[in-house]
Amino acid sequence: MGQNVVLDIKHYSKSYGASKKAANDINLTVESGDIYGFIGHNGAGKSTTIRAVVGVLDFDEGEIFIDGHSVKDEPLECKKLTAYIPDNPDLYENLTGIQYLNFIADVFEIDEEKRQTLIKKYADMFEITDSLGDLISSYSHGMKQKVAIISALIHEPKLMVLDEPFVGLDPKASFTLKQIMHDMCENGAAVFFSTHVLDVAEKLCNKIAIIKNGEIIEKGTMEELTQGQSLESVFLEVEDEK
């Protein structure tokens, strides 16, 4: 049985002004069940690509499809299927945690019973249920990140896109997030995330793409790329070569 293609990036490029391309002819396919790591140094083009995938950044060259829908031509359809967690979530600080989560559930038209079930499930997993009545402005960075993650899961997305998701999360919350990623993928969704924490990527991902200076220099399954070496040594090797 063939896997469903959840994210298909075809010949995507992005320039800022006349300078060198921040992303140059990116081609990448993420299938249902994949936990796909997108790795590279800061400034390599990871966030530029991710922000185009989730519809935050316009682009002129190439096409991006989410579950067969064009990000350019069907942006609303794509947003319904996607969850995006940026590296620094920007939440409405004058709302309480539960007000914010209900607001997001309203946007996605999630019925009362389903939202309550999912909010309780994920808030319990992240151990923040007792704090949901507090104002977001009183939350630590890690707490805000947990609320952002829960808000991204309420509509049961088909594609979860994360930018450096483990920065700012404590070890237990990181473990919980990894568990959620695995559960989603077992149910046919896909995860695409950027990171420069290579040991996390090595343990978590079944596929990897390495980006340098806006270009993908290596991609494939973890087994194909590492062949018994550590991901770190492979990354340093291809970085030096290209």
Automatic annotation (TrEMBL):
Keywords from the named record: ATP-binding, Nucleotide-binding, Transport
Gene Ontology MF: a single term: ATP hydrolysis activity
Keyword Nucleotide-binding: yes
Transmembrane annotation, as ranges: none
PROSITE patterns assigned: ABC_TRANSPORTER_1, ABC_TRANSPORTER_2
Pfam family, one: ABC_tran
Matches recorded under SUPFAM superfamilies: P-loop containing nucleoside triphosphate hydrolases (SSF52540)
ABC transporter domain location: 7-238
Record-linked InterPro entries: AAA+_ATPase, ABC_transporter-like_ATP-bd, ABC_transporter-like_CS, ABC_Transporter_VariousFunc, P-loop_NTPase
Protein name as annotated: ABC transporter ATP-binding protein
Species annotation: Butyrivibrio hungatei
